[in-house]
Amino acid sequence: MSARVCVFILTLSTLHGPRAVSGVLSGPTNVSLTSFNMNLVLRWDPPEGAAGGLVYTSEYKSRFTPYKTICTNSSQLQCDFSSQPDSSISVYGKFTGRVRAQLGAESSDWVESKEIFLDRDTVIGPPNVSLISTEDTIEVIITDPVFARSTLKEAYGASNVIYNITHWKEGHEKEAVSRTNLLQSRFVLDKLERWTSYCVQVHINALMNPKPGEPSEPACERTTSKPGVPWVAAVVTFLVIAVAAAALVLAVVYRKRISNFLCPKDLLPQRFKEAPKSSMYMAMRDSHPPEEHYDPVSIVADDGSVEEGSPLQDTGTSCSLIVGES
Q1: What is the pTM assigned to this prediction?
Q2: Cα–Cα separations (whole angstroms), residue 177 to 162, 191, 192, 199, 254
Q3: pLDDT mean values, one per 10 residues, the chain (326 residues)
Q4: Strand order in the sheet with 128-134
Q5: CA–CA separation, 116 and 43 (whole Å)
Q6: Separation CA 277–CA 314 (nearest Å)
Q7: What residues contact residue 60 under an 8 Å CB cut-off, 6+ apart?
Q8: Is residue 89 packed enough to be buried (19+ CB in 10 Å), middle (13-18) or exposed (0-12)?
């Protein structure tokens, strides 16, 4: 083949982008079927040198069912098969996915993924962890992740689900202590140092699933005091009672002062309350009233009659006033 022919073929391939020399649209790449918490998702990359405007159609099949189309003419690079209420997706099933690219009326060939067993190949997500501190112990409460199909213990059996707990003093991760192969979702970390913050991380494994579960976010809690040391609470209670009793006694003893302080009254100064003690005041206080002196008065009329003590009247007659000595 001459050099000119080779150059022409390469130029034609470049101009047509994802199309091959034969004119067929290239298929997606890196097609894989994955599972997280029992979902079923097909993922892929665009064809090499793909032009804009590509859409994709994806399907899946199980061991006993033919391919079923789920996502059609989608621009997304993934398709969640488990988002559909399809009873054919069993937690113990074996599945394969496939996808093809489309550009206008042209379609690429189907590109299949590898087969996966849902219960064996799913990745178990991180659990939710909560902590309760009681004196020098911390109780770890583990909540299983939510599965798209079934539940963790229904899918694997309660006896096949194991919890792995790692704990450390906050700020000392290199000194972490691990406790593995625990079957209970509640566990107590005991004999911890009091007034110390501890962090806990948990991941779950299933005996039928070789993939390690994802670890939870670290959860931290602080211890308080050791058991069998109730003196702290006793001392606090005693102090509260003592202060209350002292306040009551002081209120009774100094109630008058407290009352006067809270509700003061306006009183006269003492000097105004006391009577004066001068000699003049004492003489006036002890003296008797003076004796009054008076003279009798007689009135003699012209006719010779005498009236004592009668009032004088203007009768037009003359009268004489006789004053006698008493």
Answers
A1: 0.62
A2: 17, 13, 12, 11, 62
A3: 43 42 77 97 92 93 94 96 84 96 94 97 97 94 95 95 96 94 95 94 95 96 72 75 86 75 63 60 65 64 53 47 48
A4: 128-134, 137-143, 186-189
A5: 14
A6: 56
A7: 33, 40, 42, 67, 68, 70, 81, 95, 96, 97, 98
A8: buried
